[in-house]
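Risk register update: the risk of archive-format incompatibility is retired. Evidence:
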Amino acid sequence: MAIRKAREQDVPAMLAIYDHFVRDTAVSFEYETPTAEAFAQRLNEHIAIYPWLVWEENGRVLGYAYAGRAFERAAYAWNAEISCYLAQEARGRGVGRQLYAAIEDVLRRQGVRKVYAIVTAANEPSIAFHKALGYRETLTFFDVGFKHGKWYDVVWLEKLLQPLGTPERFPIPWEELE
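Archived output:
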C-alpha cells in the first residue's frame, strides 16, 4: 500500500474508478465520463497548485483524492475543495480517511485555512464520513442537480484546517513545499 502523487500514467485507472460514479450514481453530476485527454488536463491543471494523490496496492490504483480551488477570486485563496473516489474493493477499509489526512496535511502546509466538501445530499455515507472527519454542514442547495430522472440537493461541508488569523502570505503551490 502506498499513497503517492498522481501521474498521467494513472489516468486510465482513475477513469475506471470515476466511470462508475458518472454512469451509475449521482455522486458526480457529470453525465458523461471524460475522455482520457480531458481527465489528464484536469490532473495537470490541479497539480500546478493543489495536491492530487492516489492509493496504490500491488501496482494498482484503487482510489484517488485531490484538492482544488474552492472559489474564483483572489480573496478566497485560503480555501480549497476536496474530492475522493474509491474503487469498490477499497471502500470501508480506511482508504478514504488516509487519503483525506494526506491531502489535508499538504493543504495546511500550503497555507490553506478551510477545506470544503460538496456532496450530493442523497449520499448519506459520504456526509457521515465527512462529519466523522470533523467537517460540519454549512449549506444545502435544494434541487440543484438533475440526473437519472431526479432532482438532487447538494450539501456543502467545511473543515477548519488551521486558525484563520491574518495570513503572512498567499498559499503556495504544493510542489514548492519542502
